[in-house]
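User: Can you fold this complex?
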Amino acid sequence: MKRILTSTILMAVLALTACTNPGRFGAGGDGAGANAPLGAAGGIIPGSANDPSSTAYFQQAVGDRVLFPVDQATLTPEGRATLDGQAGWLTNNTDYTAVIEGHADEQGTREYNLALGARRANAAQEYLISKGVPSNRLRVVSYGKERPIEICSNEACYAKNRRAVTVLAGGLSS
Amino acid sequence: MTAFGRKDAFVMKFRFFALCLALFCASFGVAHAQQGPLRIEITEGVIEPLPFAVPSFQPESAEAGQMAANLAQVVAQDLIGTGLFREIPASAFISTVSDFNAPVQYADWKAINAQALVTGAVNVQGNSLTVKFRLYDVFSGAELGSGLQFTGTADGWRRMAHKVADAVYSRITGEGPYFDSRVVYVSETGPKDARAKRLAIMDYDGANVQYLTDSSAIVLAPRFSPSGDRVLYTSYESGFPRIYVLDIGSVQRRVLESADGTMSFAPRFSPSGQTVVFSLTQGGNTDIYTMDIASGASTRLTNTPAIETAPSYSPDGGRIVFESDRSGTQQLYVMSASGGEAQRISFGEGRYGTPVWSPRGDLVAFTKQNKGRFHIGVMRLDGSEERLLTASFLDEGPTWAPNGRVIMFARETQGEGGSSTLYSVDISGRNLRPVQTPQGGSDPSWSPLQK
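Assistant: Here's the predicted assembly.
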């Protein structure tokens, strides 16, 4: 009985994943993992934020983003701590690849911000590689100032927009 | 285009007077004088717009009636849009023009202070359109230049109007024409965190907008080829920024190949149209490269850990102006088109980006950030005579009119409801005005004058 229930939930989660296009630039939370292990029952709903191998867990519990000071691409101590968590998670969940998206706030020209976002994404990528994540599982892209998540024009929003976000992509074996 | 009427003797005479007037202006700084021939000398001083009259053109065929009125209206709008001319409304006219070839009643136009008078005649046969015009210097009581005739299509009637206005503008100001030109830009809709972007092309005045891409992928910074037939732009359609070249006639596009794991953006054509200069990012570092479009062979021009981007060729193709933060902040540099040592040219306060070499070769337009404000400015190639033309929360991305007198750029407004609008401004800093587009607009690129 319990097993049937689990399967049903899993199928529902998979179906949901199939029809949802996770908000790649959003604050995360709706992207359920496609590789939730079958055995992860016992109170843990596979793919949810309390399933440690889910995308949602990565986004919310590990933290999928690091923030940067104005015009900087140097990782902060908080950023390094977050990336330590990401490196550990990626080491344990080898089916996932990731694209690291670099972003800038709107204060700056379009071209410069593209290059600055690339510096940020690259800083995160290099740190993850230094912590043992194979480089062939990581790609980088910069969106410059094209995809802010906060739209006010003051530092409270800008601080959240100066970010590098590790976006998990489909597992290698899936 | 064909000329008719008296010309050579007049051209000689006109040049003589223009020279006299130039000397007169140098001495007294007067923009234009009623005593001499018709002339606007564009100086840094404040210019009183020159009053002109454009009576409705004369229809010379049954189908030409509405067209005649529309043409005169667009000619007037072009001239007014420069900020250098003021239209005298038809309600003030004393005499009407009922015959294109009849002598002009100068006294009637003098009485209402019309210093310039433009008359025209229109013939429409099916989709074939012929427009004739004459320009008169009312206070000298003489025709200015000779009459001209343009032939085109009725569908393309606005171009005929722009050609007439271009001739009038050039004869009176001595500047090159620019109304018969187009602008490719990024059309924008939606809020800042979900902005949809697509490439669009329009006449310089915002008419005849057509879309060149859909909004399924982010598109950035289109740039015209020197012949105006192709556009380079950056698109995320592969998931990563890549440069595409699009043929405007067929709307077919192809990607310029770049290695996996790299990003390429900020492309511009060389004056030959055969080479692209652009930025390529690899391992987080952005440098400037060129690529031969036909062969795909690329050459690296800069090699520093700094961000080098926004390259733009000199009109002779020999040099490239670009921005780099190698000094610690974004500044402008000039190097040979084959790379090598670069000279810094910007030394003022603040940061300088997106330099664009003027088509005349004498100036660089740029975006400047200083004390939390953005400016569009111009400077000479040695960095001297910096002049800021605008100031706002966010101005960026200047592009030059084909005659090097006017700059178009994008202005983004502040806050949650912020949106982007195209503006134009004279290089004197006068005549700042929005360009009407159906939706928001950014990243304009002005075409060369159409053939």
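Chain B touches chain A at residues 191-193, 195, 218, 220-221, 239-241, 261, 263, 265-266, 279, 281, 283-286, 307, 309-310, 323, 325, 330, 353-354, 367, 369, 372, 393-394, 396-397, 412, 414-416, 418, 443 (CB under 8 Å). The longest strand of chain B covers residues 116-125.
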